[in-house]
Amino acid sequence: SREWHLTARPHGWPTPADFALREAAVPEVGEGQVLVRNKHFSVDPYMRGRMNDVKSYVPPFQLDQPMDGGAVGEVIASRDDSVAVGDHVLHGLGWREYAVVDAKRVAKADPSLAPLTAYLGVLGMPGLTAYAGLLEVALFKEGDTVFVSGAAGAVGSEVGQIAKLKGASRVIGSAGSDEKVKLLVEEYGFDAAFNYKNGDVTQQLKDAAPDGIDVYFDNVGGDHLEAAISVLKVHGRVAICGMISMYNATEPSPAPRNLAMVIGKRLRLQGLLVSDHANLQSQFVEEVSAWVRSGELKYSETKVPGIENGVEAFLGLLRGENTGKMIVSLED
Ligand code: NDP
Prior knowledge:
This protein has helices spanning 46-50, 125-137, 154-165, 178-186, 201-208, 222-231, 261-264, 281-294, 310-319; strands spanning 2-6, 19-23, 33-42, 71-78, 88-91, 98-102, 107-108, 145-148, 170-175, 192-195, 213-218, 232-240, 268-271, 301-305, 325-329. It folds into two domains: 2-121 and 300-329, Medium-chain alcohol dehydrogenases, catalytic domain (Quinone Oxidoreductase, Chain A, domain 1, Alpha-Beta Complex), CATH 3.90.180; 125-275, NAD(P)-binding Rossmann-like Domain (Rossmann fold). It is built from nine helices and 15 strands. The protein binds NADPH dihydro-nicotinamide-adenine-dinucleotide phosphate. This is NADP-dependent oxidoreductase.
């Protein structure tokens, strides 16, 4: 079985030389464990943080050990009564072809209810992040004007659409290409969108939200957060979900330079970790899967075929080559 190892800790942008695809023996399936043939695995921005040797909310990847992360696959051997051969499961041992997992650490993923990849994206961790971040952290309410950055990505595209479906008066998104901007407005129903590479973010946000914004869902940090602080209304709310513009930075970013505006506007900025919101999981799946089935909520996936392209897929995610969820597919 092949698996990806981190072989050196990147400084700044990771390069292919920091990783190796290695052959490893598949471990014995112990009592209470299952053997899964992975069909798809997830590459996510948070994995960049795990490549640094710093204490964080998820432990760092160990050098010369298999990397891990979300994956879905088919059970091909089971030594636990709760999981049968042929079941499809979601689990945490991605970045490899075969995984031996404790049965209590897998969740059933029913391919008759949704495509398997949906459990990594729209109905999975990024989806719950969008749902919980908007509703429980940003305290979204009907009539709000919402701005979301990284809006053509897995989390951002869902934030914008959930806000619309729950009665936002205006939803604005930013993304890194004109094609993505077009998708946001024409397919996902955003009221306005802009390409942050086309000009000053604050000016573009002011043009898109002449009356200000009530909520900012931050996936990017840096100049986007600064722009939002300038455009937020009094008592505006911010969910700080991610700051991808800084993940490869070798120096701390100076922005937001206007942080003092938080005082006069009485803004509320709150960080968000999806793992705090497991309580919303069943409500989230119920509500969002109904919207997906009815076609009211759309989603994209960018599937990169072949385990050998796993690292390229991850680097592509950091470069913005994905629309919607970035996934490495080991089948088809
Ligand atoms: P995405 O699908 O949004 O993919 C990442 C996107 O980030 C790229 O497609 C790219 O799009 C954009 N990007 C890359 N560099 C920059 C930059 N310098 N400035 C602006 N945009 C950039 O990933 P996810 O939906 O999985 O994650 C989105 C955010 O949410 C990330 O910050 C992630 O860390 C965070 N997150 C946080 C969680 C939590 O619990 N706090 C859980 C899950 C995700 P473009 O072409 O638009 O530049």
